């Protein structure tokens, strides 16, 4: 099994959180009307790709640049074909785990990761006994088949993170979803 690894990304967090609010408003306007009642950004993730919703927001651009470089480092390759699907998780403490971010896997893809954007305290608990204290700017990447959940730690306000899935051997079923985009090699 591939390793679980952690990276650090940086951003002007105030600007990025403002851009997250813009993306959330765009999701409410474009995506939410077409999903079942009660679906949040996480549950409706197969209807959008955060990379396309966050275009052309400047701080997201710099964030994606770091995220993609870390993914390429994880793969130890700057040129192998890779595809990514990303979405935003937006939750209050009392909503975490009720509908979304309870126990789940991403076993339909090769690798799964997340980036913690807000300063809200949560833990990501993996079935392989790994417990991660989520911190702003932390990026995780590991096998998609490890069951995990997010556990709130009594924060107030809204927690924001990004989830993403990586493919390195796409099959037709993945592209029927129309949500994966390529991660082009760095120049």
Q: Please provide the ordered H/E string of secondary-structure elements.
A: EHHHEEEEEEEHE
Q: Radius of gyration over alpha carbons?
A: 15 Å
Low-confidence blocks of residues: none
Strand neighbour order, sheet with most strands: 1-6-3-8-2-9
The portion of residues forming beta strands comes to 25-35%
N- and C-termini, Cα separation: 30 Å
| Biggest sheet features | 6 strands, antiparallel
Which structural class should the secondary elements be placed in?
Answer: alpha+beta
Number of strands: 9
Helix content: 10-25%
Q: How many helix segments?
A: 4
- The dominant shape is globular
Question: What's the average pLDDT?
Answer: 91
Précis, in short:
The chain is an alpha+beta fold. The two termini are about 30 Å apart. The relative contact order is 0.23.
């Amino acid at each position: 099994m591939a390793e679980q690894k952690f990276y650090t990304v940086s951003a002007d967090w105030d600007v990025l959180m403002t851009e997250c609010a813009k993306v959330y408003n765009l999701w409410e306007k474009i995506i939410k009307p077409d999903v079942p009642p009660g679906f949040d950004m996480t549950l409706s993730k197969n209807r959008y790709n955060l990379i396309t919703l966050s275009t052309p927001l400047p701080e997201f651009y710099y964030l994606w640049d770091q995220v993609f470089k870390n993914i390429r480092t994880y793969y130890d390759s700057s040129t192998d074909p890779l595809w990514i699907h990303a979405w935003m998780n937006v939750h209050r403490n009392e909503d975490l785990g009720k509908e979304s971010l309870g126990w789940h896997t991403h076993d339909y893809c090769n690798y799964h990761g997340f980036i913690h954007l807000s300063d809200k305290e949560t833990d990501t608990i993996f079935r392989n006994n790994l417990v991660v204290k989520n911190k702003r700017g932390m990026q995780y990447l590991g096998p998609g088949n490890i069951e995990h959940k997010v556990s709130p730690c009594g924060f107030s306000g809204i927690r924001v993170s990004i989830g993403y899935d990586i493919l390195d051997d796409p099959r037709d079923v993945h592209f029927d979803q129309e949500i994966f985009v390529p991660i082009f090699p760095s120049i």
